[in-house]
Specification:
This protein has 111 residues and is mainly alpha-helical. The chain contains 5 helices and no strands.
Length: 111
């Protein structure tokens, strides 16, 4: 996983790997497979999270990816320059809201 460049993906596949993980790159550039097919050099990258607390940094990196996917779902352009803290806080808010919606849905189905 974490592949961002066409050359790396091709090398992995030719060396016998069955599948290459490009989800983060796709979150930043949904047109990435077409870019690669058309030989357009594209290697999308998020702002690196360099926090000392590695579990929190990892959670924040995933929040940044989910931030991009939420933009795509809304039909908006992705933003590779989103700050880690902004993505993390918005993700916490969205997850809390979705958890509440799910609990309400479960409670309604139980009636």
């Amino acid at each position: 996983g974490g592949v961002r460049r066409k050359e790396v993906a091709e090398h992995a596949v030719t060396s016998g790997v069955s599948m290459v993980g490009i989800a983060t790159a796709l979150a930043l550039n949904p047109n990435l497979p077409n870019d690669w097919f058309n030989n357009i050099d594209s290697a999308p990258q998020l702002i690196p999270v360099t926090w000392k607390n590695k579990p929190l940094a990892s959670m924040t990196n995933m929040s940044m990816v989910r931030y991009q996917f939420r933009k795509i779902v809304k039909g908006k352009k992705t933003d590779s320059n989103v700050t880690p803290i902004k993505a993390f806080v918005l993700d916490l808010f969205c997850r809390k809201l979705k958890s509440r919606e799910y609990r309400n849905w479960i409670a309604e189905k139980a009636r």
